[in-house]
Amino acid sequence: MTATIIDGKAVARSLREKIAEEVKTLKQNGIVPGLAVVLVGQDPASHSYVKGKIKACEEVGIHSEVLYLAEETSQAELLQTIEQLNKKTNIHGILVQLPLPPHISEEAVLEVIPAEKDVDGFHPLNVGNLAIGRDTYLPCTPHGIVELIKWTGTDLNGKHVVVVGRSNIVGKPVSLLLLQENATVTMCHSRTRDLPALTRQADILVVAVGKPQLIGKEHVSPGAIVIDVGVNRLESGKLVGDVRFDEVAEVASYITPVPGGVGPMTITMLLANTVKAAKAQAAAASK
User: Fold this and answer.
1) Residue 149 domain boundaries
2) Which of 59, 115, 169, 177 could join 123 via S-S bond, C-beta 3.0 to 4.6 A?
């Protein structure tokens, strides 16, 4: 068996075309979705991610603003900047690029972004709404993962999904989303005993641990769908995922590549959340 590659770029492109049409319609009704991104410091990866987000906004017609703050910016100054953005009616979504410098509390920053402008889906209120199944702003990467699985034509109802990794950004929220799709979810992590015995039970395997090429052929049941969320750079400079792609592709039915798999979907779901926020805030203002 040779797995079909899930082309995240192609799936994202199709979704962005729909988002662009929605933005066009909103603009005809006087609503211009707006996203503000705040970047603190000079981390090269963060600058690259922000550049990609702004480019994506331009492609679909979303207004975007970037605020570049110095590494030595204090927590109080950052919180004040966010408060100023909160008051701007043309900004419907606010995103603070992580990670932040060590002297700034991520928790404090995420909590000061109002839930209705939290297009990353990290505010405690939005996380709580996700946990109890209410409509909310979904975390972008987990939402993108579910969309990629659906692209394969798989009905998640009753499927056994094994998630490797329990982070607040991917592992936990994707498990909640999959439960809402009526999948049976097993979560594995660094303390899990006999990992291969559990992962081989999966109809769908989602790997998000940040350990290069951790998952091999011995972890995967023939015909499973494998979603690789990891992005790791080897000493050689090569980007690889958490999955040993070549060998796992021999047994899986579908597999995401790194790069070009989950990554493009993350930004696409951010765009979708920004549009959703613009519509919700416009509706609230008209009442």
Assistant:
1) 140-263
2) 115
